[in-house]
Amino acid sequence: MATAETHYTLPLPSFDQPVKLLIVVAPYYKDITDNMVAGARVIAASCGAEVELIEVPGALEVPTAIAMAERQAKYDGYVALGCVIRGETTHYDTVCNDSSRAISLLGLQGACIGNGILTVENRSQAEVRADPAGQNKGGGAAAAALHLIALSRKWAGQTTGIGFRA
Ligand SMILES: Nc1c(NC[C@H](O)[C@H](O)[C@H](O)CO)[nH]c(=O)[nH]c1=O
Ligand SMILES: CC(=O)[C@@H](O)COP(=O)(O)O
């Protein structure tokens, strides 16, 4: 049985320049992803980040939407949210592996992305991970994006305020 505690222990970064986050969510299981969006919004707000949200059909479309948004050069970072629950065929593996691989590749190309796409065996596993009062994976994905934005600015010579040791 999964425990409800979250695993995010890094102090959230603070910013002295505005931050604009885009949440890209695949509401394939909308009740699950709504909880993750809520968790992500709380974390974003705690760092003073402005948030926009777009929806795509499924997890496979999330990285494509992020790549399209990155070409707009409007956002500092992205929160990828979704829920993939194993079905009867191997399609689960394709959806999980291809969405996560594409997101990782976008990150290696410089996009600041927190990946909150759940890949689970059943709905109850998803529920505890999506719950903001549980494992809060949506909040964790937002925190990850914010940390990468802060790191990017730190190394680009912009100050980010406290939250990072020299
Ligand atoms: N089975 C799940 C999917 N499948 C749909 C794909 O993500 C994609 O939208 C489709 O193959 C068309 O390209 N998506 C989820 O987000 N979650 C699932 O459990
Ligand atoms: C996890 C999925 O990809 C979802 O579409 C379930 O598909 P299936 O039951 O056909 O494996």
TrEMBL record:
Catalytic activity: (2S)-2-hydroxy-3-oxobutyl phosphate + 5-amino-6-(D-ribitylamino)uracil = 6,7-dimethyl-8-(1-D-ribityl)lumazine + phosphate + 2 H2O + H(+)
SUPFAM superfamilies given in the database record: Lumazine synthase (SSF52121)
Active site residues per record: 91 (proton donor)
Pathway assigned in UniProt: Cofactor biosynthesis; riboflavin biosynthesis; riboflavin from 2-hydroxy-3-oxobutyl phosphate and 5-amino-6-(D-ribitylamino)uracil: step 1/2
Tagged with keyword Transferase: yes
Binding site for 5-amino-6-(D-ribitylamino)uracil: 28, 59-61, 83-85, 115
CDD domains associated with the record: Lumazine_synthase-I
GO molecular function terms listed in the Swiss-Prot or TrEMBL record: 6,7-dimethyl-8-ribityllumazine synthase activity
Its EC number(s): 2.5.1.78
Matches recorded under InterPro entries: LS (IPR034964), LS/RS (IPR002180), LS/RS_sf (IPR036467)
One Pfam family in the UniProt entry: DMRL_synthase
Keywords assigned: Riboflavin biosynthesis, Transferase
Binding positions ((2S)-2-hydroxy-3-oxobutyl phosphate): 88-89, 129
Similarity-based family: Belongs to the DMRL synthase family.
Function noted in UniProt: Catalyzes the formation of 6,7-dimethyl-8-ribityllumazine by condensation of 5-amino-6-(D-ribitylamino)uracil with 3,4-dihydroxy-2-butanone 4-phosphate. This is the penultimate step in the biosynthesis of riboflavin.
Protein name stated in the entry: 6,7-dimethyl-8-ribityllumazine synthase
Taxonomic source organism: Pseudotabrizicola sediminis
